[in-house]
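step 3/5: co-fold with uridine-5'-diphosphate
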Amino acid sequence: MLMAEVLVTGGAGFIGSHLCERLIQEGYQVICLDNFSTGKLQNINHLFQSKLFKLYPHDVIRQTSLRAKYYFNLACPASPVHYQTDPVRTIQTSVYGTDNILKQALEADGVVIQASTSEIYGDPLEHPQTEDYWGNVNPIGLRSCYNEGKRLAEALCFAYQRQYGVNIKVVRIFNTYGPRMNENDGRVIPNFFLQAIRNDDITIYGDGQQTRSFCFISDLVAGLIKTMHARDDFTGPVNLGNPYEITILELAEKIIKITHSHSKITFKQLPQDDPKVRCPNIDKARKELVWNPQISLDDGLEETWLYYKKIFNK
Ligand code: NAD
Ligand code: UDP
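step 4/5: write tokens
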């Protein structure tokens, strides 16, 4: 049986690889479990230099026996393009995968930190979103494989906590970006950078007046680590995100400016159930975790641009 201090499912993905890196820097023994469906070996190659890092190629849908003190459950496609490609698998990953991790934590007396999402608020009727808002979700829409899957995963966490006393901590992650976000991921920031680099049209879905609030990866990882160290009875849910809100049109203009691109903006059809607004209220994280994002959108986009420039030799 493999044993570690920390197991990170989805550890070869964008957020997971940064989290593994930070945990190793802090001296934790880490096992990264991943099936490489959207994750990449390049994201974690540098971590093999450390004796503290092990890779366990595995699908979280299938049971396994892994003992750890902390279980970060991040395995799940996060880009709408990816999670809608195989919606049945997306639901199975959230539901069976989370169930498997909770079972293991129950056996090992471990702590589960569940990566939930702002998507559980759906197309919100309350703005900004606080943790006690129940959301406005279409249960049968194209996004439901992801948002309903994640809602059921939250319900499972709280059921295991109430019924078996499993120590759970649910974090609702808002849009996060930064280096290592796959350029073909389909989410808005990598899409706009890729289009800008190629001087292709920047594709805005809808009229661009929908809003998002973007958190830089180092801030998010700091929030995840603070959650790991939160007191035993802190279950969450807690919002982790940057409350600086921007329209998608403003984001496109910013990226054109940073990249000095000749791209023009074009408008395409808005996908079904695309949330019109999204912004976290982070009072709970500020108070309970003493966490506050530090990196401005301008600084974070500059750092992300340096990364994409490097991989495209620009
Ligand atoms: P990502 O696609 O880069 O990473 C997901 C990782 O999970 C990948 O390495 C993938 O290979 C792995 N994975 C997927 N299905 C799996 C399975 N069945 N078994 C094992 N591994 C599997 O996405 P990300 O942005 O790093 O997101 C990580 C987590 O954070 C996800 O749970 C996502 O829902 C959550 N989240 C992310 C954001 C964001 O803005 N990045 C926002 C909200 C929530
Ligand atoms: N979006 C866009 N053009 C793109 C990709 C996304 O206008 O090329 C929009 C999308 O419709 C949404 C927002 O940008 O309103 C954020 O999309 P993303 O896929 O990054 O994540 P979401 O927050 O929707 O899960």
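step 5/5: annotate
The pocket of nicotinamide-adenine-dinucleotide (ligand 1) is lined by residues 9-10, 12-16, 34-39, 59-61, 74-78, 93, 97, 115, 117, 173, 175-176 (CB under 6 Å).
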